[in-house]
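Example record

The entry below shows one chain as it appears in the dataset: sequence first, then structure tokens.
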Amino acid sequence: MARLAVAMDLGTSGLRAQAMDLASGEVLSTAMTTRHPLPGANVIDHIHFALELGVATARDTLIASVNQLIGRLRVATGDIERLAVCGNPTQLSLFQGMEIRDLAFAGSRKLQALGVTPPERQAAVLRADQFPALALPRGCLVIIPPAVRHEIGADALALILQTGILECGETAIAIDYGTNAEMALVHQGHVYTGSAAAGPALEGQHIACGTLAIPGAVADLEAVGDAQRLLVLDGELRPVPGSSIDLCLAKEPIETTGPRPIGITGTGTIAAVDQALEAGIITLPHIRTADRRLHFGRDLFLTEADLAEAGKAIGAIRAGYITLSAEAGIVPGDIRSAYLAGASGTYVDARKSRRLGLIPPHVQAIRQVGNTSLAMARDLALAPEKLDAMTDLARELRQNHCMFGLSKTFATVFILELSYWTEGMPISTYRDLLRRHRLPDLPPTQGTPRIIRTVQQDIDDLGRMGLVTLDEVGLIVALRVEGCIGCAACVRECPADALSLGTDPGAPAIALTHALCNGVACRRCEQVCPEQVLHLNQFFGAATNSAAVASDSHRGQD
């Protein structure tokens, strides 16, 4: 009988898992979802959902998707002896069914008023029988790493340990580009950490034609004369040359080759914004084309709203490293090395990224290192004793952790970023205002950095059985809503195409796809209902009863 382990990255935008042979350490297979099973595209949405419907409902939905993903690894579930997970505090807390109100509210007085005692979130090795819904052998060990502080967790520890930034010997920064951009600045032996709520744009979410980094995603653009060639992820998540397109025109590609593009991931968005700025097609905050869009062929495009979303994400990250620089008593120009992690950090063109401000301006060496959270989960699955090193590091990092949500520096810089990206404030004015607020200056980029790609794709080893992607994850809930007149106003209003209407004219059923829904922070469907009979909580609450229908389709590349 084989002895197996599963490593899993519980990401904010989706889940990624790998099966491994415990005896040899070999990766056998990989599976990933194309979205997160909970409604919403960021941790705030997920927390809001859990607070409205209960942590138990959120936990059951998340674990159901964990079970789906494990089932796609194509190994004998009964042989799995260990499951190691890694992720931010929100995802790990929901997975464990822990208190999350301390993640929702800042300040000790508020928590005291609510009667909340924040959990420790320490490292733990549990048994699967402590997770009743987890479809693993009862004796299987579940390995959970520690958090640093309530909003920065095991994924940040993984970023530091997997990049080796502590041994680089110079002022350096590591950034995990994602919905919550974890970053660590190392200066003179001290580590300064923070987590910027960058939003989902850098992972291809909340973008009109966006997608995660999955096969078929546009990951980059490269100039070819007056045209742009798409770089598209193939079945093994490697960027390969695709068709040539004209960003200004919605027409068939100039030259058709390579994989068919199905959507634009965060790095494709970054590349398009950079190239359009360089060509004068974008003059912030506007796209200077006839229809105010950047085109990737006939059917894929970026809008001015997408440009604003990308700008907010870039601005949050730049505000983050300026804030950490102020904490360390340096300026961003002092940072000499950068480590980029996550799918966006792997596939982004680092030079384009630096021009846009995602990397400090005087960095001389940029290392792109892949999915450090999943890599950490693999290490823990094979050697659970590595939890001790993570615990020691977490204790050390608490000394210089900056909570951006409470930082006046971060708030001031982010307002300047919003003015730059969404109002077109000149960069000279931006820098002048930094000086007036006595904040670290942001000089122009300088020199040509050395790019070191330590991996070619964000998951460096897909295993001999290859990759399977799970396209439909979470729940699709269909209900007959009393009083519904079948006008479909809710379907038309939904910005995420999460609602559909049945064809029965007498009593049409409304179906909600949880994973597509923007969550309880949106509720546009409720607001537009002329009869005021549609309530999102009906569909979320149905997750725990027989009205819910789980969707379980998938496609794979073996």
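Notes for this example: Residues 304-328 form the longest helix (25 residues). Residues 159-200+308-372+381-453 form one domain.
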